[in-house]
Amino acid sequence: MTTDQEVPGAMLADEATERLAALPILESVPGAEIAWLVERGALRNHAAGDIIRTAGSAVDEMAITLTGRVGLYIQTRGGWRRVLEVEAGYVLGVVPFSRMQTAPGNLVAEADTTLVALHQDHFPDLVSECPETTAALVHQMLDRAREFRTLQMHDERLLALGKLASGLAHELNNPASGASSGARSLVSLLDEAQGASRALAAARLSDVQLEAIDAARVECAQAGPEWGALEAADREDEFTEWLERHGAEPTTAVVLASSGVSTAVMDALADALPADALDLAVRWMASAITARDVARQIQTATARIHDLVHAVRGFTFMDREGVPEEVDVAQGLAHTIAVLESKSREKSVDLHMETADELPGVYGYGSEINQVWEKLIDNAIDAVAREGSVTVTATARADSILVQVADNGQGIPDESRSRIFDPFFTTKPVGSGTGLGLHLARRIVHMHHGDIVVTSEPGRTVFRVQLPVTGTKAVRAESDGDAE
Predict the structure, then answer these.
(1) What is the mean pLDDT of the chain?
(2) SS3 string of the chain?
(3) 318-348: b or e for each residue (b if 16 or more CB lie within 10 Å)?
(4) Residues in the chain with pLDDT values less than 50
(5) Closest CA to 404 of 413, 393, 395
(6) CA–CA distance, 260 with 237 (Å, rounded to integer)
(7) What Cα–Cα distance (Å) separates residue 413 from each residue in 283, 317, 404, 417, 418?
(8) Exposed (0-12), middle (13-18) or buried (19+): which is 30, by Cβ within 10 Å?
(9) Which of 158, 250, 285, 328 is deepest in the core (most CB within 10 A)?
(10) What is the pTM of this model?
(11) How far is CA 42 from the centre of its chain?
(12) Distance CA 316, CA 398 (A)
């Protein structure tokens, strides 16, 4: 429910003049200008919980908080979330020379709140008759815009960090579980191999017999080829029959069939050993094969974990100082794709990257440039249907690098294409996006003296980002302190 009580100008003069004059933003403003505001303004009282303005509604007035507390709530995927809280002395709504047209979120009175409201129809007279008030308001508008941009960036970074953490946890789960399971089973396998080894030692075999066992062990240690399903089943049946024919335990057939050993080598081993020793030798070799396979699986799993951590470190630049430096775009794209790989795999999206050899570097903040790639690639994955495709390319163009992110989704509607970089505008369902991703991506690109454009039609949407390479005029100007 939205409620407010508007108090006439006479009461405003009695109750608000001193409070307005005492506010830090207006403390240096002449009394005559305060009186001008009092004469034309309206005093409004809001109870705690009142919605002062709803998201998306037209903003046609300025409101100065005299007392109380007001919160700004933005709708996110998890619901409405407060992103800003202000107290007495803060200016809400539109002010002279600002471009605000609609409310970015719900303005809610967090406590009983009193506001002084001035309709924008009075702004031309305000500018001409109250220059010091206008200057103070414009100054706060700039501070407010800077603060809000910082909040936007912080909010989007937290959202990206949440996505990154969620995707990373999901991606790390499988190799971590595999390594943990393998490590547990490896202990029992080593105990089993040690027991079989002791039993073989107790059999007091001759040197010739031990050499036969060692020859078979070497063959078993060789990794077998990639058998097809039918070939693997035939080999398992073959070894099962061989083991049963020689009185050995047939449960080891699967292990022997997966190795590089042949039945001819096993025949030579059977000729050299008595039946009881043959079974011991087969069990010992099978234990060694399995232990070696588990060790390989642990190695693969831990290597995958290492690669993921390396990709995240490269994506976030967590081990670098927050200073501009030469950035390897190809490496940044590779790290970004590695971070988003689990999302693309869940959706069966073909995520493909092509980069030209020996791309020159760009000068800037690597973590922020990677955020641009993350937002564009993440959006492209969202835009395509299941089993769709996303292609990322990077090439050198004269004194710049061109990165293109193309997808084969439905495309961006014509009526939305001109607004996709606007703050809080999103084509995603309500609660599925903040509408800040592309806006901040463009800000980051512009901050690095680059440009970002989009072309779209059904079946193909392409975002193109052009960044100047290290040493170009724009970059040199910034490093010399000459750029605006």
Answers:
(1) 82
(2) CCCCEEECHHHHHHHCHHHHHHCHHHCCCCHHHHHHHHHHCEEEEECCCCEEECCCCECCEEEEEEECCEEEEEEECCEEEEEEEECCCCEEECCCCCCCCECCCEEEECCCEEEEEEEHHHHHHHHHHCHHHHHHHHHHHHHHHHHHHHHHHHHHHHHHHHHHHHHHHHHHHHHHHHHHHHHHHHHHHHHHHHHHHHHHHHCCCCHHHHHHHHHHHHHHHCECCCCCHHHHHHHHHHHHHHHHHCCCCHHHHHHHHHECCCHHHHHHHHHHCCHHHHHHHHHHHHHHHHHHHHHHHHHHHHHHHHHHHHHHHHHHCCCCCCCCEEECHHHHHHHHHHHHHHHHHHCCCEEEEEECCCCCCEEECHHHHHHHHHHHHHHHHHHCCCCCEEEEEEEEECCEEEEEEEECCCCCCHHHHCCCCCCCCCCCCCCCCCCCHHHHHHHHHHHCCCEEEEEEECCEEEEEEEEEECCCHHHHHHHHCCCC
(3) eeeeeebeebebbbbbbbbbbbbbbbbeebe
(4) 1-3, 7-11, 430-435, 473-484
(5) 393
(6) 16
(7) 66, 36, 20, 6, 10
(8) middle
(9) 285
(10) 0.52
(11) 46
(12) 28
User: What per-residue confidence (pLDDT) applies to 454?
Assistant: 93
Residue type, 427: T
Tell me how far apart the alpha carbons of residues 413 and 404 are, in angstroms, rounded to a whole number. 20
